[in-house]
Amino acid sequence: MRIGALKESFDGEARVAVTPSSAGHLQKLGHEVHVESGAGARSGFSDAAYERAGVTVHPTAAALLAAVDVVAKVRPPTEDELAAMREGQTLISFFYPGQNSELLEQARGRGVNAIAMDMVPRISRAQKMDALSSMANIAGYRAVIEAANNFGRFFTGQVTAAGKVPPAKVLVVGAGVAGLAAIGAATSLGAQVYAFDVRPEVAEQIESMGAEFVFLDFTDQVQDGATTGGYAAPSSPEFLAKQLEKFRELAPEMDIVITTALIPGRPAPKLWTEDMVRAMKPGSVIIDLAAERGGNCDLTVPDEKIVTENGVTVIGYTDFPSRMGAQASELYGNNVRHMMADLTPAKDGALVHDMDDDVIRGATVTREHDITWPPPPPKVQAIAVQKPKEKPKELTPEERKAAELAAFRQQTRNQVTLLVAGGAVMALAGLFAPASFLQHFIVFVLAVFIGFQVIWNVAHSLHTPLMAITNAISSIVILGALLQIGSGSAWVVILAALSVLMTGVNIFGGFLVTRRMLAMFQKS
């Protein structure tokens, strides 16, 4: 099959669906790769770079559409682009079928098989094709960069000769892919990061990245991300009121607010109201990543940056991924080539549109003059609510002392019982066994008891080096073998030589393994 990438016609769009590096992977699947001239120029990919990668460059969009079987784009196609496509062609792009019903109907009428990259189900197997997550990751990172560019102070706290600089306080509302990327970027810059999300299962993720989770004292509503494909569901009015109350409490303290809350197919919820903006300090910055769907902030103007009367900057750009065109194109190009890999299971260049496959079925919105959206729910759910782990109760000094005393008494009872039982066994053996056996048996039992007591209190991570060094020490039996080598019997000499060989391996190998294992626990 021939796959071609169109030049994006949307004003200011810098991304491209196929890069020179992703073209190489597509060729390994047995496909020919084509691209419209200038498609990658705004992302830094020249026509010459494509030609060096073995890609055919076409001068116009019409020439490309006439030559290829699969058309790859980033933005949804325009009506003119769909009209130029022929029946049976496959389109891979963002489509947003819930908001573009007329475009969906046009694709059905043209007989175009449309695969919407925004409809890839959020299941583990489809993560490599999840273009929404790829772009959200870039948007979250870029949001922090834009905030830093518009914020008049350091992110990190410093103590200098000129004075102390406090760290910037950053609040991230919504801890999806974009929110987590923003948390990671802001934390790495040294900011004091707070984050909020209505899904309880993301609290551990937030805290593991060095941010502080903003807890809401509201137990009546626990959302399950699995029922909504990993997204947050609409909140109840009571929950929303409690949420806004918490945000009003935080607003005067925050220097930067990054909002990422979006619900698929719905306008963005209003979470940062005008009075919260007025409560913020002059010089504060709000980055609204939901601006394209109306914004989470009351004052957001899509594609514009405004400064309020009290000096708060509100940024509502809708092209954050495009502002990092090269990186965004590489990630999106990888998503497309992974989708093509699923469509080409035999890697022979033949497209297999398997509608029994959860991923392909979920992403397909039109096929053979039929609208296939919305898809049935995938057989595998995205994520499920995890029960919060119960934190261990903090013991008082008196309780801790009582617990230690009880543990000591229990250990003493166990040891006394073991010694009494062992003594009884030794006495019983002494009644029937010869004295020479009893002497060796006592040494053996004491060795086992001491070894057990020593090894029992060693951390599990040190068991391997401990056993290795024990092996090396136990090989002292090599002395016996050396004494027997001078024996007059040939069999004794052979066995003694074998003993020396095996114990030698045990000694050197034991010390070598111990050395390597212990090196793993050293910072150097």
TrEMBL record:
Query: Which N-terminal residues, if any, form the signal peptide?
Result: none
Q: Which GO terms describe its cellular component?
A: plasma membrane
Which terms are listed as keywords in the entry? Cell inner membrane, Cell membrane, Membrane, NAD, NADP, Nucleotide-binding, Translocase, Transmembrane, Transmembrane helix
Q: How does it sit in the membrane?
A: Multi-pass membrane protein
* All copies of domain Alanine dehydrogenase/pyridine nucleotide transhydrogenase NAD(H)-binding, residue ranges: 148-316
Q: Where in the cell is it found?
A: Cell inner membrane
Major subcellular site:
membrane
What's a single GO MF annotation on this record? oxidoreductase activity
**Which Pfam families does the UniProt entry name for this protein?**
AlaDh_PNT_C, AlaDh_PNT_N, PNTB_4TM
Biological processes, Gene Ontology terms: NADPH regeneration
Q: Which reaction does it catalyse?
A: NAD(+) + NADPH + H(+)(in) = NADH + NADP(+) + H(+)(out)
Residue stretches spanning the membrane? 416-435, 441-459, 466-485, 491-513
| Alanine dehydrogenase/pyridine nucleotide transhydrogenase N-terminal domain span | 4-139
Q: Does the keyword ATP-binding apply?
A: no
Q: What is its EC number?
A: 7.1.1.1
What function does this protein fulfil?
The transhydrogenation between NADH and NADP is coupled to respiration and ATP hydrolysis and functions as a proton pump across the membrane.
**What protein family does this chain belong to?**
Belongs to the AlaDH/PNT family.
Protein name (Swiss-Prot/TrEMBL): NAD(P) transhydrogenase subunit alpha
